[in-house]
Design goal:
single chain, two-stranded antiparallel sheet, 6 strands, DUF2515 domain-containing protein, DUF2515
Length: 365
């Protein structure tokens, strides 16, 4: 309850923002100056904080086991550090990732996709979820330990192969506690991080992103990212993701999701998140529409992640820093608070169309 009150109080100061919130020109110039003078020096193996680095790497690996554990870790972190808005945004988006993973074994999507193709789609979703956690969680833990020691520790970011883009942003957050600036910075960083390592992969371009199924989902509006929240009844708020290949589109989507979550529905989404454990099943938010039991014919089958998929063994290769030009700096200027964000009716229509497609596929195969 204290977390809820603290965040609501801080957001109430910004409610004059209706459709757009802008980071000041002065803040942007300060960060741009720091980025232009930053050097990408290799880590020194003799650093005094070597034990802390080891602890953070071990803790990140511990929680990067599967979507369920990652999603909970984000929420637990936010409960301890409510000024880190990105962690709650990541929690809610990660719930969507889990639902997308289990859809591949559910009654709506599984008739439309072979078991072999389902595995490839799962690996793509799981790698995206794990890559972001692998990059972002050490940053969150560094902030945790900085607070604990009352000392800026962000000079240690290179020891976790974090982009040079993030150090000035964390430094500035340490000084100003500008939660929106940090959130937008992390959105930009993480989307560029997976662009380089996953989205541009020839394998996943051919087997996932350029497939008829993926393109059909985008065209038919089945790529919603939404946040359940309860008023008199449960509602869904979010955006439909299109042009997933485009990193700039994904960044803009992330900004919109942030605007919706923190400036439109925060209190109600927070109550949902803290009262509803994430299992990966869509029955988490609509138990009158979805079920975890495969034989309940009146409802759509949506298994838990534990039932649907085994843990995936990841390896994380060292890649060059994605931040090589100043093009992304201007993306820090603003984020968006969409006027139209309610998706409940749209999602119900999507379900009806998917159900029809699944029935047709069953008849013709």
């Amino acid at each position: 309850m204290q977390v809820l009150k603290k965040v609501v109080r801080s957001l109430c100061k910004k409610q004059h923002l209706k459709t757009k919130a802008t980071i000041s020109k002065k803040e942007l110039q300060s960060i741009e100056a720091k980025l232009s003078t930053s050097t990408d020096s290799p880590p020194n193996s003799g650093v005094p904080e070597s034990e802390l680095i080891k602890v953070i790497k071990e803790e990140t690996k511990k929680y990067n086991l599967n979507n369920i554990i990652r999603t909970k870790a984000y929420l637990d972190y936010f409960l301890e550090h409510p000024e880190i808005h990105w962690s709650f945004l990541a929690h809610m988006v990660s719930r969507n990732g889990g639902w997308n993973m289990t859809d591949l074994k559910g009654s709506l999507i599984s008739p439309l996709i072979s078991s072999e193709k389902a595995v490839i789609f799962f690996e793509f979703l799981e790698k995206a979820n794990a890559l972001i956690f692998h990059d972002a969680y050490p940053q969150l833990l560094l902030y945790h330990h900085s607070k604990k020691r009352k000392k800026n520790l962000f000079h240690l970011l290179p020891y976790f192969s974090v982009s040079s883009f993030m150090k000035p942003i964390w430094d500035y957050f340490w000084e100003t506690q500008n939660s929106s600036l940090l959130t937008v910075g992390l959105i930009i960083n993480e989307q560029n991080y997976i662009q380089q390592r996953l989205i541009e992969s020839e394998l996943y371009q051919a087997e996932v992103l350029n497939t008829a199924l993926f393109n059909a989902q985008e065209k038919l509006g089945f790529t919603d990212v939404f946040f359940p929240y309860r008023l008199k009844k449960l509602e869904l708020a979010g955006v439909t993701v299109q042009d997933f290949n485009d990193v700039f589109v994904r960044i803009e989507t992330g900004k919109k999701l942030y605007g919706i979550l923190f400036f439109k529905i925060f209190e109600h989404a927070y109550k949902f998140a803290t009262s509803t454990p994430h299992t990966g099943s869509r029955a988490d938010f609509w138990p009158n529409v979805f079920t975890v039991k495969p034989n309940e014919k009146e409802l759509f089958y949506s298994p838990t992640l534990e039932e649907a998929w085994s843990n995936y063994d990841h390896s994380f290769k060292l890649e060059p820093d994605w931040f090589t030009s100043s093009d992304m700096i201007k993306q820090l200027k603003e984020f968006y608070i969409p006027k139209n964000y309610k998706l409940t009716k749209n999602y119900k229509s999507d379900l009806e169309r998917l159900d029809l497609l699944s029935d047709i596929k069953k008849v013709i195969t």
